[in-house]
Fold this protein.
Amino acid sequence: MQVQKTESAMTARKNFGRLLEEAYYRGDEIVIERAGKPMAVIISFAEFEEFKQQREKDFEILGKIRSKNQGMKPEEVETAVESAISEIRKG
């Protein structure tokens, strides 16, 4: 079961090996904080690779949307989106 937990930077430094194992073997996500402020996250390499692949797909889709709507005013895009959502909800 994947767990998200928070560790202080000092605790993370002292227990880095254990945190790496928890991320790798159990799939835990460890948020590292300094002075109560989230600074970084330790995740498994597999999860990081999935994130990168999904991000690449998302940017590809976004690029297609941008090129399709190039030259349109923001209001026109908003109207088209609202219309599409309405059609989907009807069907």
